[in-house]
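Hello again,

I reread your note about wanting to compare the complex against the isolated chains. To keep things tidy I'm splitting this into two emails, and this first one only covers the full assembly. Below are the input lines as submitted, including protein chains and any nucleic acid or small-molecule components. They are followed by the predicted structure of everything together. The single-chain runs will come separately.
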Amino acid sequence: MQCVYPLFPSCCIREPVITQQVAARAAQLQARALKELSDVPDAEGLEAWRVSYLGRKGEATLLKRSITEVPPESRREFGQAANAASEALASAFEARRTEIERPSGDDADAIDVTLPGVPSPIGSIHPITSTVREICAAFGDMGFEVVEGPEVELDHYNFEKLNIPKHHPARDSFNTLWVDKTGEDGERPLLLRTHTSPMQIRTMEKQDPPVRVIAPGKAYRYEATDATHEWHFSQVEGLAVDKGITFADLKGTLHEFARRLFGENVRVRFRCDYFPFVEPGAEMSIDWSSRSDNRGAKGEKQEENWMEILGAGMVHPKVLEGVGYDPAVYTGFAFGIGIERIAMLKHGIDDIRLFYSNDVRFLRQF
Amino acid sequence: MLVPLSWLKRYVNIDLAPEDLAHRLTMAGVEVESIEKMGMHLDPELVVVGLVTDIEPHPDADRLRLPTVDLGNGETARVVCGAPNVAVGQKIAFAKLGARLYNTHSEREEPLRTAKIRGFESSGMVCSVKELMIGDDHEGILVLDPDAEIGSPLTDIVGDVLFDIAVTPNRPDCLSVLGIAREVAALTGQTITEPETGYADDGEPIDGRVTVRIADPDLCGRYTASLIEGVTVGPSPAWLQETLIRAGQRPINNVVDATNFVMLEMNQPLHAFDFDLVKDQTIVVRKARPGEVLETLDGQRRELAPPMLVIADVNDAVGLAGVMGGANSEVSQGTTRILLESANFDPVNTRRTGADLKLSTGASYRFERGLRQELAEVGLRRATRLIREIAGGKVASGIIDAHPDPAPAPVVTLTAARLKQVLGTDIPMSRAKEVLASLGFQRVGSDDADSVSVSSPYWRSDIEIQEDLVEEVARVIGYDEMPTTMLAAPIPRHHVQPMWDLKERVRDMLAAGGLQEAINYNVASEENLRTVGAWTDDALALANPMNEEQRYLRTSLRASLLQTVSDNRRTGGGDGLRVFEVGRVFLPNTSGKSEGLPDEREALVAAFTGRRGPVSWQAPENAADMGFFDAKGAAEDLLEGLGIDPMFEADTDAALKAGRTAAILAGGKRLGSVGEVADGVLDKFGLDGATVALLEIDLPSLLAAAPADDRRYRPFSRYPESVRDLALTVDQAVSANDIRAVLVKHKLVKAARAQDVYTGEGVPQGKKSIAFGLVFQSDKGTLTAEQIDRVLEDLLRRLQRSVGAEIRS
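Full-complex prediction:
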């Protein structure tokens, strides 16, 4: 029997085998052509390659043409294989041509990738704002909602209702900036609030228990300014009043706050302190060395380093009575956090005056 | 309050290390701020007490002498000494070889070595306080108390630990060494050795020889006095001087020192009068007369006024009650008869007197905080005993005790239920009773398993209500021993805080837009507020501002932010500055229900100045200076981001450049302004030559303009957009808004934005060329080129009619 496939002189008889061989032949052709193409050095060689594979009498062209010699029932497979090989060669040719025609080495489209990128203006939030946000978020998750109140305050709210009557020695620690107005009694009724604690009274006067609020804002004290003292500063006041709120809740809530701000492993301790509007009164410190990320250079444990971060206490019964809450039924705790101190600890800032100097070299770091 | 450990130990046994003691006190509410150790570094073996038994002159040097020192146990030493004050019979501090001392020649601390001084070998040294490193004096050697035991370690005598204690206003008892000792006793389970108050009153009776009358019993609840006759005023014994010095008090004379000692010991202020200078042997406690003058012990003539309280004789004031004695009755060298006062004065009146006279003393500081009337007599007896002991004389029998209306000791009841309600844990009542007993509280009435009634000890004036006792129990057991729980109560209902939320959003949007947030003081000077056009005559002033620049509560944020811009002008390597502040302005309140409080309005101000961005070949426009349109762009982004469609209208503003100022409007309401700062204003802030664009928005107005609820979804067209440019020539006076208003009216115009403005060559005088980018789109189908051309023709006709626009050729 005469072989009908002149291209494949040693071809075999059965069709599946023939088809397989056609596919293998096309793949072989493609591999060889691509190998040669990658070795083509210049445009001249490229043209020679094109002619020998893709030209009118090129191998790939001839392969496609030979379809007429394939039995009709195998032409489909044959055509697919031949076309695929031919297309692959054509696209590889285009790619190689692009490569060759472009000047090599000193590529016109190449860029100095070390040049700076096109800048977008960068802004940022003041570290006091971001610290307030962190604190509000921590307490917000524990059900505290944000309230705000006036910075120019009445003596009544800033002192009297907080169990600090006129001429109380505790007023010594609240060096007050007074508004230049005198009431009929000869006293000055208006002042710049010396703490955010008046918000305790304003909140309780406005709503019945239960209460769970935090009140961020500015406060003022007549104090000489130095690296650790500012006369104009920020606080977050907190207040929770309901039936059954205890000193244990105060400890738990504030410890949780410390964990949120300073790391899950932070240790806290509470000591007795005095604020006229709470009883018992407390102060919380954190052990700076216990923060999770505060290991020494070799990962060793640091020495204990206790830092006072807030004052707190159980709301004084006189304060509750003053706003019409029954202290026999309702108990609660209050706390006040100095924002600057927290921000200084968190960011390693050593001079409180930086916060309100608004030097962008400082502000841009946050 | 400086408390020497040696003094504390007179009343309570202390085994704890100073640091541990300080920690216990601090945790219990008595804050030890610092611990200073003095003389503790001296080696007990090598630095000892010696007795100078003999002194020979040095054969070769006039200024040097050779004392022989007895060191006890038969040990003696002969050394070279250059001190002028060394004398036979003195007890001195002797350092043996090897003792670490301060070498005044090398100016270093080093071990003492054998030295040959002018041919004489010296093995040891008689020391000055400087060499001992317990003081600065190097004029002579330290001479010790004659009672010091020969051979005993010097550190036992001069060594001490000073606790500096910050006492809270509620605990005046802790302004005394005994008060601190009582705390230590309660915290460590010790008992107190009470100071001796007994003495022999073998003089003539005081009755009939001294008259005391309290004219104002409201201001003086008790007045006790004793009379000591035949005293010798002179220096106090060494132990008393040393004790006072360590507690930070300067010794004066034995009588005054005794009163100071007792005040520091048990907190009762006392005053000693020279009784011969008190006319008619009569003391009257009365209010000062208007204009009455008293020269106080500090030599100041003070003009008094009621209700200041004075101690007077029949005629004149001899002391300012509870504050300071008068010079006219001062104890001096020649004084032989002492009238000793120990009284109780009203806290508020004492505090007002001190404040009015700007005079604060150890006595007034204590009376202000409130002392118990019982303390007066204890203090009197203690001081009388001490004066008799150190100044001699006889004490008249009996005391004066004017006590018109004795106040009973407060009795407070503590229940187990309240302890649990406040602390959140069951503390056994027996434990609570133990704690209260350890603090000196006395049980009153019957014993009960669930409650206890106690009267507070005479030194405590801060216990009024049950919660005070709760704190006592908790602090002595230790706050760290109390349980820790999370809030179990349900979270209260939430209230929306639209202004807070808006401020947060505005900050985030501006920061994302490249602006830096600043926070400034809320105060400004009148001049600055005038400069920025924000001055009002009823601006709130501070009575005691930190300085004149900060006298007024700011009525505008502009001045603060321009100062920020000015302060930063030279920083940032030449890059531009975009900065904003969200803060409060304080405006006169017109609501009438404000109780005088101002209207604190939240406001936003932003400033733009300098290069638009870092110089870059990729962004050549960065090199240009920012101006009006940068501020306006920020305003547009902000407002559109909040769902507001703003309008900008030419406007005037005293602080902004004419012709470069616009009002920002939304829904016909004014939100604020945008403009370039006027030159005169720039000059005042040291910004001359700069272009500074300002954006100012009233946040309550912004809140009112912002859509109240969530943004609504608006369907958009499925058909493609077509973009065309339209270049027009119009009169200079025609604004972009005038043209845009016509363009966007057409229903197929989806957007119209001015892209370029040009005057000059090719544009007639008085005209300008303005190019708009137009976006056409229909909701009904794809627009054909012919449709768009027709719309354009139509738009041109309308523009010709309304603003005289012509298509640019």
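For quick reference: Chain A has two domains: 15-104, 127-363.

B.
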